[in-house]
Amino acid sequence: MDRLDVDVQACSPRIKITLTRVGVKNVKKLVKIARTGGKRPIILISNFHMFVNLPNDIKGANMSRNLEAMYEVLNEAVNSEVYDVEDLCSEVAKRLLERHKYATTAEVGMKSVYMLTRKTPVMKISCQEPATIFAEAKAYRSSRSTNLHSQDEESGVCIKKVMGVEIAGMTTCPCAQELMRENAVEELAKRGMSRRDSDAFLNSIPLATHNQRGRGTISIEVENDVKIPVGKMIEIIEKSMSTKTYEILKRPDEAKVVETAHQKPMFVEDCVREMAKRVVESFDYLPDDSIITLTQVNEESIHQHDAIAERVATIGDLRRELNGLNENAGVA
Which is more confidently placed, 34 or 162? Predict the structure, then answer.
């Protein structure tokens, strides 16, 4: 037999241990995402990972099959309309199971920088802001699931998808601002201003506090055919911080951004709670078992550490919790 005909990967390993994930990562590919309304497609330079599980009687996975499956799907995408990166990952994951007959699970993920175009608040200067979008799909052979509604009927494969976004913004500290307010009230009192007048004056101007560059992240895990709009997730994150960031700011813009941020001070915890509320309000069509992960990381300006807050829950749990709070508030 020719040595080239020997499939070493298919041989039995010396140590028979099942491996959870075997594959490749840091695979960079160009992805073109179509948009409705005749708009130009979005071009993404994406970083992929692709894994399958490996049973204990097979020495190694044939890595080239992973790349073949990806090229196959991406080439098809060039000639057809692809609107969702998570669907792209799902299709590659299904192809991996087709090519790796021994595998029962396949996982495909991607991460890309997505450039947003926006205008500054006063001068209306066009600029760009980067957001990180990520998607992941996990494919299971149908024997892993008894939920027929979550299976692809043609391939007999169950798909779970994760879609996520991370974007930067700005937050300002409520605690330090309140300290500065009390100092200002005392100073104004010394100068003969009443508390009523000083409160009215201080309510009309932004008070000093320290600020942070924050990074908010939302990821949502759903079943096969549920769609999650990236733009809505970005909007939720940005509205859950004190203000947006801008690459270009002229003086009137800079003054407006600082004023806006100081009029809406937020702790890192506030950002996550605001995201949770907006996710529940915006995605009322999601099934109760959809898993929501909300994370906020703030780079402190007066400390060398970062502040972080996170919530991981099903959207059903978040709905029940928010409804409970609303009911309690109504009784009061």
Answer: 162
The secondary structure of residue 305, as a DSSP letter, is S
Q: What is the pLDDT of residue 174?
A: 95
pLDDT in tens, 176-191: 999 999 999 999 999 9
b/e map of 197-215 (b: 16 or more CB within 10 Å)?
ebeeeeeeebbebebbbbb
CB-based contact 89:113 (threshold 8 Å): no
Give the integer Cα–Cα distance in Å for 227 and 280: 15
Q: Give the pLDDT of residue 79.
A: 56
The two tokens of residue 311 are: 């919530």
**Cβ atoms of 220 and 292 closer than 8 Å:** yes
Q: What is the mean pLDDT of residues 285-305?
A: 96
Other Cβ atoms less than 10 A from the Cβ of 216: the count is: 28
pLDDT score recorded for residue 145:
44
The CATH-assigned architecture of domain 16-173+210-331 is Roll (3.10)
Instruction: Kindly compute the dihedral angle of the four CA atoms of residues 93, 97, 100, 105, in this order, to the nearest 10 degrees.
Output: 80
% of the chain exceeding 90 in pLDDT: 63
Q: What Å distances lie between residue 68 and 71, 109, 112, CA to CA? A: 5, 16, 21
Each domain of the chain, given as residue ranges in start order, spans 16-173+210-331, 174-209
Q: Are 296 and 272 in contact (CB under 8 A)?
A: yes
Phi, psi (deg, nearest 5) at residue 226:
-80, 135
The residue with greater pLDDT, 294 or 327, is 294
Burial 76-98 (b: 16+ CB within 10 A, else e): ebeeeebebbbbbbbbbbbbbbe
Pseudo-torsion of CA 231, 234, 239, 245, nearest 10°?
A: -120
Q: Which helix (H) or strand (E) holds 263?
A: none
37 three-class SS: coil
Comparing 155 with 298, which gets the higher pLDDT?
298
